[in-house]
Design brief:
The chain has 221 residues and is an all-alpha fold. 71% of the residues lie in helices and 3% in strands. Helix 1 crosses helix 3, helix 5 runs antiparallel to helix 6 and helix 9 packs antiparallel against helix 10. The two termini are 55 Å apart.
């Protein structure tokens, strides 16, 4: 069973590789000579609409991170009209396609006369939705960054209290552990991670002084 599973996975990977190679060839071949040289234009959309199928949309999304094919992928996805709208939205939400690319794809669908009017309108609506989703994501990241900065400032302020025996008495064990773990992280160490004997000894002494409040001059057992 294990051998069969391995063969199946190997076959899937091989098929994916063949699909991506075919898509690269199709996208490259769809370029046309225009005012700015050889590139992708409305004629490319028409060509790609005949050579790419909706079943290959997942492969195109996987290819979106390839900088050399970024623009070509936009045109290839846009050529699929209605079939590409929701998958592109999901790819944006899943961070597989960046905001600008998702917007460009919807805009290409809007302007492609090979797409039905209904699909072009849905693309326009989706472009607005993606814009709103991007604003929400930006607001979320800003909020998280602000909260993290406040949390770091609080722990750092508590760390300063450890230098004053009177203020240190008012720190809870949880606050002391936060300081301890923050110090380990700054040193590139993990409490239960791989360490040399010297590092383990240092971490043990740090735990006893920072968390347990023992004297740093305590002799080893």
């Amino acid at each position: 069973m294990v051998i069969l599973s391995g063969l199946f996975l190997g076959s899937c990977f091989a098929e994916d590789a063949v699909t991506l190679q075919r898509l690269r060839h199709v996208i490259h071949s769809s370029r046309h000579l225009g005012a700015h040289g050889v590139g992708h234009n409305n004629d490319s959309l028409k060509t790609l609409s005949r050579t790419v199928t909706p079943a290959e949309i997942p492969g195109l999304i996987n290819l979106a991170s390839d900088k050399g094919f970024r623009v070509g992928v936009q045109f290839a996805l846009a050529s699929q009209c209605e079939a590409a709208i929701f998958p592109v939205r999901e790819a944006f939400v899943g961070h597989k396609i960046i905001f600008l690319d998702a917007q460009d794809i919807m805009q290409l669908i809007e302007g492609f006369d090979g797409c039905p009017p209904e699909a072009r309108q849905r693309a326009a609506n989706m472009r607005s939705e993606i814009d709103a989703l991007a604003e929400l994501e930006t607001a979320r990241l800003q909020k998280e960054a602000k909260e993290k900065a406040a949390e770091d400032a609080r722990i750092q302020f508590n760390a300063l209290k450890l230098t004053d025996p009177q203020q240190a008495k008012h720190l809870t064990k949880e606050e002391r552990e936060e300081i301890f773990h923050r110090s380990l992280k700054a040193m590139g160490l993990i409490e239960n991670g791989p360490m040399t004997p010297a590092q383990k000894d240092l971490v043990d002494r740090m735990y006893r002084t920072m968390v347990l409040g023992e004297s740093g001059n305590r002799p080893p057992n």
